[in-house]
Design the sequence.
C-alpha cells in the first residue's frame, strides 16, 4: 500500500520492515518522529526513551551484541553526547545489525549549531548512508541493517531537517523477522582493551576498504549480496550515475540532489547514497565523462575535499556555494547564471514573528521574576531558551544540554560570587546531562543556585516522556524519578519545590537562596500548558487598570497593546491567571466572574 | 498538471492538517506529491510554512521558491504578506483575515504594516479574504479554520467534491467528520 510519509516515518517504517527489535533514543528535532513512530508499533519492537544519547547508543550496542537488530536515533548534537560509545563500537562491529540515525539541522531551524555529522561518521570509520527522499529513507534503512550485518559494522544513517521533515509517497512492505542471533562470548571482539583495540582497528579499516570495493554493486531495495545489480528488478544502485549533457557533471547527495534535479534537469549527476567511505574510483570515472565537475553539498566541503585530494579536478564547489544554511534550487540556478523569476512584491518590512513561550506556560512565572530581579542566568536547552528574547531578556547563556550547571559553577569560581546568579534547566535536560554537573557543585563546594523547571515532560521536541514524567515511550505507566529526593541524595542540603506561578513567594525564595552562601536547588513544579487542560476562560483587563504595563513584562502572546494600553486577546488567552498575579492593581479578572467591562 | 501550494500561518493554528489533506488527495489521484514542513522551536508561536507540490509527473525538490506558488493559503494576514514574494504572477490567495500580533509589534519595536490589504490585492490575481475563524466557529470549532480555508481554495484545485469528502472522512477523527464537512462547505460558499 502507498502512503504519504514524513521522512522520519519512512525511516521508522524501514527499520520496522527490517525487523528491528530494540530502539533506544533521546528526542531531538529533527530526529524525534522516527522513535515516536516506532513507539506506536506493537510489542515486536522494544522502544524506549533513554535519558540521553550516550545511553541510547549503549543500549543499542548491547542489543546488537545480544543478537537483535537495534537502532538509536538522535539529532546532530546528540551524536556528540553519544560519540564515546559510537567511536569504539565502530571498531568492535556488531552481532545483530546496528544502525545509528543522526539528523543534522542545516539552517539551524531548531538547533544551536549546523554541525556536519558526516565528520563523526568518517572519524569513527563507519559507512554513512544519506537518502534523498522518503522512499529512500525507508529503503536505505533496510539496506543499512543488511550492510551492518554483512560487513560487521555500525552504520550511520544521516538525515537532516529537510529530509526528515518532508513528506512523500512511500510504498509499504511487510516486516521480515530476524531471529535473535544466539549469544557467543567473544571478548576479543567486545572487550575494548588496547591489545584487542589494535586488532579491531585493522579489521575496521579492512571492512571500509571492502565496502569501497563493493560500492559499485550495492543495490537498494533488494537483499544485499545479490551482486548482479542488473538482475535486481526492483532495486536501484546506492550510488547512481545519471549521464545527460556532458558539459556539466555534478557530484551530490541527499536533499541537494533534489535541488540539482530541479535547477539543472539536463546536467549529468553522480548521486551518492553512500557518503562514507567515498567510491573515489567511480567518481573519477564519472569526472572523465563530463567537461566540468561540480560538487554540491550543504554544510562543510566533506565530499569536495576528498574528491580534490584524490586528484580529481573540481571546477566548482564551495567557492560557488556557502557552508552556511540550506540550499535551494534557486541558489543553484543563480550560481549557474540561470535567470530567476523576478519577485513582484517585496515584503521585507513584515515584522518578524519569533517563537515565544505559550500562553499558560509555567516557565513564564519564573522568567518574569528573574527578569525583575535582573539575575544573571546560565540557561540551557529547551523551550525556556525563548526567555532570552524580549520582553523578559532573562537568559545570559545557552550552549548545550546540561551546560547551565557547569557554567554557573565556573562563573562563580571566576568572579568569586554566586550572588544573584542562577542556572536554569528543564527536568529532561537535568536528567540528560545536569546531574553530573550538580554532583560536581556539591563536591567542589559551590554556593550557587540551580533552578530545575519541572514541567513533567520534554516540551520543545513535542512532548516526549522522560524518566521523571511517570510514563514510558509507549505511554504506559512507568516509575517516575523524584528529582527532589535525587538532589538531596547527591548532597544538596537546600532543596525547595514551588509553583512558578506563585510569583511573590518565588521572588522571595530566589532572593534568599542566591544570597545564601550554600548550594541550593529550587524545583519549579507546574506541568506544561500543552499537556494539562487550562481553565480556558479568558481573563479581561478592567477599569482598574492604571496602565503600569506590569502585565506586559510576562511576555504573554495573549496580551497586546492597543491605543497605548494593554488588552487581552480573547482568542489567545487560556485563562492561566499569571497576569492576575502580577498586576499590582487587581485590574485583571476572569470573565467567568462576569465582572468588569470586556475589552474588544 | 502542476500545483504549488504554500500554506502559511502561526505555530499552533493547524496548518499541518491542511497539508496532510492535500497530500492525501494527490495520492488518491495518483499524482506525485511532496510536502515540507516546520517542526520544533518555530512551532511555539513562530511563523510556520508548509510547502505542497503536486505534479502529474515527478516532484524533485520539496520546496517552493520565490515566484513559484500557484496558491497561497494564509491562516493569518501578516503571514500572507510575508510570503507574498512566493506567489507567481497570476497566482491566487486565500486569506483568513485574523490578525495575530507578533511580539515585536506587541512591544512597540516595529509597526504592524498598514497597507497589507493593498499589497495582497495588487499581487494576487485572485484574492479571497474573509473571516475564516468566524465560519469555523459557526461550523462548531475554531480549530476547523484549516478546512474552511481549504473549502475556499478548493475552486483552484483539481479535485472533485467526492474526493474532498473522501479525504476528510479518511483523515479526520470520526466524531469531527461532520463538523469538518460543514466547515468545508462554508469555505466553499465564500
Sequence:
Amino acid at each position: 500500500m502507498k502512503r504519504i510519509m514524513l521522512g522520519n516515518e519512512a525511516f521508522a517504517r524501514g527499520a520496522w520492515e527490517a525487523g528491528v527489535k530494540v530502539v533506544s533514543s533521546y528526542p531531538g528535532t529533527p530526529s524525534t518522529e522516527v522513535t515516536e513512530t516506532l513507539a506506536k508499533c506493537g510489542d515486536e519492537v522494544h522502544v524506549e526513551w533513554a535519558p540521553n544519547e550516550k545511553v541510547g547508543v549503549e543500549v543499542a550496542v548491547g542489543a546488537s551484541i545480544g543478537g537483535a537488530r537495534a537502532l538509536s536515533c538522535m539529532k546532530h548534537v546528540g551524536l556528540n553526547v553519544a560519540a564515546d560509545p559510537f567511536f569504539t563500537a565502530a571498531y568492535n562491529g556488531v552481532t545483530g545489525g546496528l544502525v545509528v540515525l543522526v539528523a543534522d539541522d542545516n539552517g539551524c531551524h531548531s538547533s544551536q549549531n549546523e554541525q556536519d555529522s558526516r565528520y563523526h561518521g568518517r572519524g569513527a570509520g563507519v559507512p554513512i548512508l544519506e537518502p534523498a527522499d522518503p522512499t529512500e529513507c525507508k529503503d536505505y534503512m533496510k539496506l543499512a541493517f543488511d550492510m551492518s550485518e554483512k560487513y560487521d559494522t555500525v552504520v550511520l544513517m544521516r538525515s537532516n531537517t529537510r529530509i526528515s521533515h518532508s513528506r512523500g509517497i512511500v510504498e509499504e512492505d511487510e516486516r521480515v523477522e530476524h531471529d535473535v542471533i544466539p549469544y557467543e562470548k567473544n571478548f576479543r571482539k567486545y572487550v575494548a582493551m588496547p591489545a584487542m583495540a589494535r586488532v579491531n582497528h585493522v579489521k575496521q579499516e579492512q571492512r571500509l576498504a571492502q565496502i569501497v570495493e563493493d560500492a559499485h554493486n550495492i543495490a537498494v531495495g533488494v537483499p544485499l549480496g545479490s551482486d548482479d545489480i542488473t538482475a535486481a528488478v526492483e532495486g536501484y544502485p546506492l550510488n547512481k550515475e545519471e549521464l545527460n549533457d556532458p558539459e556539466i557533471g555534478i557530484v551530490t547527495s541527499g536533499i541537494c540532489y533534489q535541488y540539482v534535479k530541479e535547477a539543472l534537469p539536463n546536467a549529468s549527476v553522480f548521486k551518492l547514497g553512500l557518503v562514507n567511505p567515498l567510491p573515489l574510483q567511480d567518481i573519477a570515472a564519472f569526472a572523465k565523462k563530463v567537461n566540468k565537475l561540480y560538487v554540491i553539498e550543504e554544510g562543510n566541503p566533506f565530499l569536495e575535499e576528498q574528491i580534490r585530494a584524490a586528484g580529481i579536478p573540481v571546477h566548482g564547489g564551495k567557492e560557488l556555494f556557502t557552508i552556511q544554511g540550506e540550499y535551494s534550487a534557486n541558489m543553484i540556478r543563480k550560481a549557474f547564471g540561470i535567470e530567476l523569476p523576478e519577485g513582484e512584491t517585496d515584503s521585507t518590512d513584515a515584522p518578524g514573528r519569533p517563537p515565544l513561550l505559550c500562553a499558560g506556560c509555567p516557565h513564564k512565572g519564573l522568567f518574569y521574576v528573574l527578569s525583575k530581579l535582573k539575575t544573571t542566568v546560565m540557561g540551557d536547552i529547551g523551550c525556556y531558551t525563548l526567555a532570552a528574547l524580549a520582553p523578559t531578556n532573562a537568559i545570559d547563556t545557552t550552549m548545550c544540554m546540561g551546560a547551565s550547571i557547569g557554567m554557573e559553577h565556573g562563573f562563580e569560581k571566576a568572579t568569586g560570587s554566586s550572588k544573584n546568579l542562577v542556572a536554569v534547566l528543564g527536568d529532561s535536560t537535568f536528567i540528560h546531562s545536569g546531574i553530573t554537573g550538580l554532583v560536581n557543585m556539591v563536591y567542589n563546594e559551590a554556593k550557587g543556585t540551580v533552578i530545575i523547571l519541572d514541567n513533567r515532560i520534554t516540551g520543545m521536541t513535542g512532548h516526549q516522556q522522560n524518566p521523571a514524567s511517570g510514563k514510558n515511550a509507549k505511554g504506559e505507566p512507568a516509575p517516575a524519578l523524584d528529582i527532589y529526593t535525587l538532589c538531596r541524595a547527591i548532597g544538596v542540603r537546600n532543596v525547595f519545590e514551588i509553583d512558578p506561578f506563585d510569583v511573590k513567594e518565588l521572588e522571595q525564595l530566589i532572593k534568599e537562596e542566591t544570597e545564601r552562601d550554600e548550594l541550593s536547588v529550587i524545583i519549579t513544579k507546574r506541568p506544561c500548558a500543552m499537556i494539562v487542560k487550562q481553565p480556558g476562560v479568558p481573563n479581561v483587563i478592567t477599569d482598574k487598570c492604571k496602565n503600569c504595563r506590569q502585565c506586559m513584562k510576562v511576555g504573554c502572546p495573549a496580551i497586546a497593546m492597543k491605543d497605548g494600553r494593554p488588552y487581552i486577546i480573547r482568542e489567545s488567552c487560556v485563562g492561566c491567571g499569571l497576569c492576575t498575579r502580577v498586576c499590582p492593581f487587581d485590574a485583571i479578572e476572569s470573565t467567568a466572574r462576569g465582572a468588569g467591562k470586556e475589552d474588544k | 498538471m502542476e500545483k504549488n501550494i504554500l500554506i502559511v500561518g502561526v505555530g499552533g493554528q493547524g496548518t499541518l492538517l491542511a497539508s496532510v489533506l492535500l497530500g492525501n488527495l494527490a495520492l488518491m489521484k495518483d499524482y506525485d506529491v511532496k510536502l515540507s514542513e516546520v517542526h520544533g522551536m518555530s512551532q511555539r508561536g513562530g511563523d510556520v510554512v508548509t510547502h505542497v507540490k503536486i505534479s502529474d509527473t515527478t516532484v524533485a525538490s520539496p520546496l517552493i521558491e520565490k515566484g513559484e506558488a500557484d496558491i497561497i493559503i494564509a491562516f493569518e494576514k501578516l503571514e500572507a504578506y510575508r510570503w507574498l514574494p512566493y506567489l507567481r504572477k497570476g497566482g491566487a490567495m486565500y486569506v483568513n483575515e485574523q490578525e495575530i500580533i507578533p511580539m515585536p509589534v506587541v512591544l512597540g519595536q516595529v509597526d504592524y504594516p498598514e497597507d497589507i490589504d493593498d499589497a495582497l490585492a495588487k499581487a494576487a490575481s485572485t484574492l479571497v479574504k474573509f473571516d475564516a475563524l468566524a465560519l469555523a466557529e459557526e461550523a462548531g470549532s475554531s480549530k476547523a479554520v484549516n478546512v474552511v480555508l481549504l473549502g475556499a481554495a478548493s475552486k483552484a484545485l483539481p479535485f472533485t467534491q467526492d474526493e474532498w469528502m473522501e479525504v476528510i472522512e479518511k483523515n479526520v477523527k470520526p466524531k469531527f467528520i461532520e463538523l469538518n464537512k460543514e466547515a468545508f462547505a462554508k469555505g466553499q460558499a465564500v
